[in-house]
Amino acid sequence: MSKVNKSYPFYELGSRLKALREKHQESLSEVSGAVEIEPENLQAIEQGIERPVEDILLLLISHFGTKEDVATELWQLAGYDGDALPTHHAKNDSNGNVSHGVIVMPIDTRIAYTDMVHVTVNNYGVVMNFMQTTGISGSQPLAVSRLGMSHEHARSVIKVLQDTLDSHEPKHLPSDTSPKRHRKND
Fold first, then answer.
1. Within 13 Å and on the Cβ side, how many CA atoms surround 128?
2. Measured between alpha carbons, how far is 165 from 168 in angstroms, rounded to an integer?
3. Which position has the higher pLDDT, 88 or 136?
4. Distance between CA 97 and CA 93 in Å, rounded?
5. For the segment 64-109, what is each residue's pLDDT rounded down to a tens digit?
6. Gap between the Cα atoms of 10 and 18, Å rounded
7. What span, in angstroms and rounded, lies between the C-alpha atoms of 171 and 144?
8. What are the two backbone dihedrals, phi and then psi, of residue 22, each rounded to the nearest 5 degrees?
9. I need a labelling partner for 58 at 20 to 30 A (CA). Which of 42, 65, 85, 162 fits?
C-alpha cells in the first residue's frame, strides 16, 4: 500500500485518472470540456491535490468508459463511501499504509419530476440538467437530475421520446370537409 502525502492526499486517484486520460490520448482541455470543469481543476485532480466531487468523478468514469472494477477502485480512492462524504479519503494503519473499504451504492428508483431542462452540447456529447422551480419568489431553479450522453445516444433518445409521445396521442376522427348540401325551403 502507498503512503499518503499531506500535500497530495489524492495522488493515487489523480495518477490513475491521468493514466486513463493519456491512454485515451486526450488533452486536459478535451477531458475537462467533456465533464464541464476548468482544465486547471482537472490538473489539480490529476496531481492529487484536489478530490473531484462525486458528480465530476462519475462523469470522468463514464467519459473514460471504465469497467466496473476500475470504477469501484477510483470511487474508493476518492474516499466516497455510500451516501456520506468522509472527511478524509482513507484510513491509515499504524504503519502509515492506506486501507480502503467496500462501497455499496444502492439504486434509487424514485422519480424526480421537473418543469424545465437546460441542455448543453459540446464536441464530446450532450448534458441535460433537469430542473425544478422551488416556488419561492426570486429563487433559482434546483437541478434534480443531470444526464450526460453521446450525440448518437441523444439522437436515439429524441426518437424514442417522439415515438412514445406519438403513440400516446389521442386519436381524432378526420373532420368532415365535404361540402354541405343546403335544402331549399319549399
1. 13
2. 5
3. 136
4. 6
5. 888 888 888 898 899 886 533 333 334 445 555 544 444 455 566 6
6. 12
7. 34
8. -65, -35
9. 162
Residue 43 has what pLDDT?
Answer: 94
Helices H / strands E in the chain, number of each: 6, 5
In the numeric block, the cell 319549399 is attached to 186
Least confident of 14-28, 50-64, 104-118, 140-154: 104-118
Residue with cell 419561492: 136
What is the grid cell recorded at 130?
433537469
- Helix (H) / strand (E) element for 167: namely helix 151-167
Q: 58 by DSSP, 3-state: which?
A: helix
Place of cell 403513440: 167
* Residue located via cell numbers 421520446: 161
Per-residue pLDDT, averaged over 48-64, amounts to: 90
CA atoms within 13 A on the CB side of 107: 1
Instruction: Determine the pLDDT at residue 12.
Output: 94
Altogether, the residues listed in the chain come to a count of 186
Please name which of 122, 101, 108 lies closest in space to residue 37, comparing C-alpha atoms: 122
